[in-house]
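BUG: 3D viewer hangs when loading the predicted structure for this chain

Environment: internal workstation, default settings.
Expected: structure renders.
Actual: progress bar stalls at 90%.

Input used:
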Amino acid sequence: MNSSYANYSHFGNMNKATKGPNTNEPLQMCLSDTMDKNFQYGSNSVLYGPRSEQCQTYMSQRCATKWDGFCEYYYRQHNNTNSWPNSQVWPDTNNPKFWYDQTSNLNLGNQLLKNTVEAKYCTYPNATPHQELFNPLDPNSVKLTYYSDEAGGGVIPVCRVNPATIDNDYVMNLALQNPNASYNTIVNVCNTSIREGTDLSGTKLGDVCNKYQQNMQQLRR
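Structure tokens produced before the viewer hung:
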């Protein structure tokens, strides 16, 4: 008797071109929570997903290198504030943990944007980088970079941009369209540009920095 039901051996198989899932590729765990993921990776899959620290760190570091369709999907898919769990607010789980708004409440899509902007434009001169496996149970898993504060003064980023290319930078344009997600990093760039004498005039970011400085001067009066 023929059955229209899938064979048990095929159930949950997302990658039909291979005999099994690519366990080294975190995208399969991080883009969304699905039953497929649970069947592919077993009980360990509950530790990973769009809300996990590992996935948010992986996605932001990946998207800081190149913002592609997967980044866009995560950002748009998890920015729908009308659906659970995106209607919930979650603490910022990206490292470093000592940045000013470490307890800010953002939905997952905005967290990706915030973390990506920081990962792309900021360095941490007073911090020590170290790497950890995305999945510590898999020695072939990709490595994530974290920063620790050994001196005890806090991990404070220094953020810079290239004025010649920043107007055409897709990530920065997203940040300027949605400043609530990455306000502190934008302000950091503005302050660094003033401190280091970087001319941002004539750029969209420069206009934002000018308004920020004007507001700061009014507050000091």
